[in-house]
Amino acid sequence: EKGGYDYFMLKEIAEQPKAVADTLLGRIDAAGSLSLDEVRISAAELREVDKVVIVACGTAFHAGMIAKYAIEHWTRIPCEVELASEFRYRDPILDSRSLVIAISQSGETMDTLMALRHAREQGSRVLAICNTNGSTIPRESDAVLYTHAGPEVAVASTKAFLTQLVACYLVALYLGQVRGTKWGDEIRAVIRDLSQIAGAVDRVLETMEPVRELARSLAGKDTVLFLGRHVGYPVALEGALKLKELAYMHAEGFAAGELKHGPIALIEEDLPVVVVVPSPRGRSVLHDKIVSNIQEIRARGARTIVIAEEGDEAVTPYADHLVRIPATPVLLQPLVATVPLQVFACELATARGNEVDQPRNLAKSVTVE
Ligand code: M6R
């Protein structure tokens, strides 16, 4: 049942190109526009939405953080993202014009379920992004967009995350299209780019041997830090979460712009720091800023593990280890940048003798608080 792999996690990492392609399948019509027939909220209702609120936990929360960048950019609708466990216990401001998006692989996470119940009580529309047909969260939502990742068995979420991202981009593009923002041309281009992304994920998977080797060489370390900016920031958080839950190491993700506000004090000789570098194309200011962040931490002794686009030579002099990913539009980069971090965490866990599919103290679906 593991299809020849030692662990479900390895199998599920390898299945990502297919999971991504399957999640896109049938959702973009021949004319290149989006039709999401599983979304049973009318276009008229969507045009009325004045706020999007995303609620989720763990890895699904990181997908939501990335979705915020896409939703606000393509639709100009304000978007908040909140941990479901925080959202449900405060007094969030919601009404019938708020669209709440609940993201959950299992569809059974208690905090996310309670958050969506609370939202519906306030009269908000709820859209679920979920991987499990007929589970509680989609059953209680007004609309559902299923991710077609197939069953995810390993506790650490991998293919579900990539498909959650695809689903979030689809929702963002759909909202943009329905509301007719000025980004029409960009939206059409992104639809084209999305259809190529499964191939890009495949290419990343083919080049992972050096990442595995690097992971094995770091098995004796205590701490690994992760830095990113813009959509690379949630990717850094996701890389750190994977490493915590699988390798039981101290791992933290930071927004690179925060370095001088505290985290840079952690940098010491030979500390591994993974840096997710945004595309040098698009918003190049982000790229320039992170190149100086890499220089700053390296000057203080960090061992830099740099994840950068093919052809990005500006980072080469400052990278102790360079992991190349295919060029993608800025907002789509998490779909390829996350994959090396999954492989890294899985290999480090194996090297430390940990149980990869069933990490200690964790359950696949958290149905209690
Ligand atoms: O089933 P859900 O997507 O609602 O689960 C949310 C989190 O419990 C989950 O993503 C968790 O953080 C994973 N173990 C991370 O790999």
Automatic annotation (TrEMBL):
Span of domain SIS: 42-181, 214-359
Physiological role: Catalyzes the first step in hexosamine metabolism, converting fructose-6P into glucosamine-6P using glutamine as a nitrogen source.
Source species: Streptomyces longwoodensis
Record localization: Cytoplasm
UniProt keyword terms in alphabetical order: Aminotransferase, Cytoplasm, Glutamine amidotransferase, Repeat, Transferase
Gene Ontology molecular function, alphabetical: carbohydrate derivative binding; glutamine-fructose-6-phosphate transaminase (isomerizing) activity
One GO cellular component term noted in the UniProt record for this chain: cytosol
Active site: 364 (for fru-6p isomerization activity)
This protein's name: Glutamine--fructose-6-phosphate aminotransferase [isomerizing]
Subunit structure: Homodimer.
Lineage: Bacteria, Bacillati, Actinomycetota, Actinomycetes, Kitasatosporales
EC number from the UniProt entry: 2.6.1.16
Catalytic activity: D-fructose 6-phosphate + L-glutamine = D-glucosamine 6-phosphate + L-glutamate
Ranges that cross the membrane: none
Residues shown, of full length: 247 to 615 of 615
